[in-house]
Amino acid sequence: MQFLYPAFLFGLLALAVPVIVHLFYFRKFKTIYFTNVRFLKELKQETSARQKLKNLLVLLMRALAIAAMVFAFAQPFIPKGNVIKHGLKSVSIFIDNSYSMNATDKDLSLFEKAKFKAKELINGYKEEDNFQVLTNDFEGKHQRLMSKEDALAAIEELRPSPAVRNISDIMKRQQQVLNTSERSLKIAYILSDFQKNISDFSNKPDSLIEYNLIQLRAITESNVSIDSCWFEIPVQMANQVNPLVVKVHNYSDEPAENVTLTLNYDGQQKPVGNLNIAANATVTDTVHVGINKTGWHQAELVITDYPIQFDDHYYFTFNVAEQIDVLCINEDLPNRYLEAAFKGISYFRLNSVNSKTIDYSKLGNNKLIILNELKSISSGLAQELVNYMKNGGNVLIFPAENSDLASYNAYFNSIQAHQLQAFSKTERKVASINTNDFVFSDVYENAKANLKLPSTTGSFPIQEFAGKAVVKLLTNRDGSTYLAKYKVEKGNQYVCFAPLDQQCNDLVNSAEVFIPMLYKMSISTTKASKIAYTLDKDAYIESDMNTADKSDKVFRLENDKTSIIPEQKTIQSHLVMHVNNLIKEAGFYTLVDDNKKKLQDFAFNFNRKESDLLCLTKDEIKAAVSGNVKLLDINQDTNLSTMVGEKELGIILWKWFVVLALIFLALESLIIRFWKV
Asked: Of 230, 272, 356, 455, which has fewest CB within 10 angstroms of its CB?
């Protein structure tokens, strides 16, 4: 047995106090004789012997009580092994405050339990030791070492957070802070549920730091989450049914039955129905969203699930434009058929311009740009069109019969499209239509029944070979391509290999093909407005508005609780904002300018990475770690303060000596009270 504070053993000198008191109690008294005392003398002798025995026992109990208290203050221990860690320590404690820690263990969330256990750890160390308190937030105030008192106060202030970190990143951050300490003894603790999707132990930790893993487990690991949602059609329209696909996931080993799904938007609550989801499965459901007005809309999908509720709400926004802008660039006069096609529906707004009067700054305002029989494509226009498509725009080209093939092919080469060959006056007839592509999907009940397909008396052949990423939308009987689509990053390039002129192309007479083709191309884009963003994942958000004339303004994101000014810059006339770690709560945020004018709505959701509550088992953790990383094998009743002492020193005995001291004092009281002499 050894002592942590052996100087307290000098306190054993206090054993002299009860001895002195005992001797004083037996001071001599003066003898007085009186008659007839024979029987009294016999009684006195008997009583005196019992009194001596009682007093000796009281003295012994007092001496043992004092000795036990002295030993308790000296903190005796039985060392484990030959190494005893003396000296001041720097201790880092990570507390997992992600939403998966809201799972419960006997009516107490794992997060609250982690905070309690962290306090026990800190209380197991000396007042002179220093501490780091770290969470998933990686906040600046947690990137330093602090006193014991400050560390305990910091734990009290912790709250759940949407942030999610991998274990390897956590260990790196602990290492960075501990390496700033000059103390030789450095210890790190990680208190977490160790979900499988975040438990990455691939990085080799610092060998000079002792890492200790403490796993907290919930009673059950079940959760149902709204994973995501998206519109089937990229552009939402007023006074039409807009199909919304909803994805719901059951992370439980048991089926989830009668999960109620509700849609809230425009102040209305619309029950969608009840979902039955198999164990560890995903279901998709389609919600038909009827929209009566234009502008920005805020909507929310809701399910009811307990106890994990952060993923029971999915927020999204969408914009219903008053009109869809289409730009037609003409060589000479506008095409009257194009004019009639778009002006027949008020939802579309066609702007026709001459090739010599193009305002390049406004190209991005259009969903579709049509090149109507331009004789040539200038290098400036070609570059602008490429940038436009890279940002999600759509371009449709009808080449002129007398086109400058060099300029056209230079442009097509820049977007990896097929090269045009010399104009051919061979008659061709379209024979097949690709209904698998968005342009013609869901347009015809039967594409082969009484459908008038276009024919040509002249067109541009292309040399077809492997390596070109092309989608054939309309194909001639001889196998040549009439209408093709090329992917250009986020946008699409459509090419009709025949002029629009009726003298060589009767497409305008095939209304069943011409009209839906133009409408679907106008709304076909992979860069539809993003309806929702994910906290701690999407670091940047992009506004749909054109900022060409707003570059000097400062924009804010606001809701009824907060207002932030994110880092902002303009890229190709679009406002891009850096919001990483600025937005903490899921919900709706409105983009406003200096004049508080509302410009756009954004929706943010918590990261679904935390929805899967499946955690590593203890055996899996032990198999994944080695060396200076250890899993502490504890249960819910383990006192970590005691564990720390035993881990650092060995078997600590001071509490047992305190118990012994109390026992001795109790025995003393019992002897004095109940021993009659």
From this structure: 356
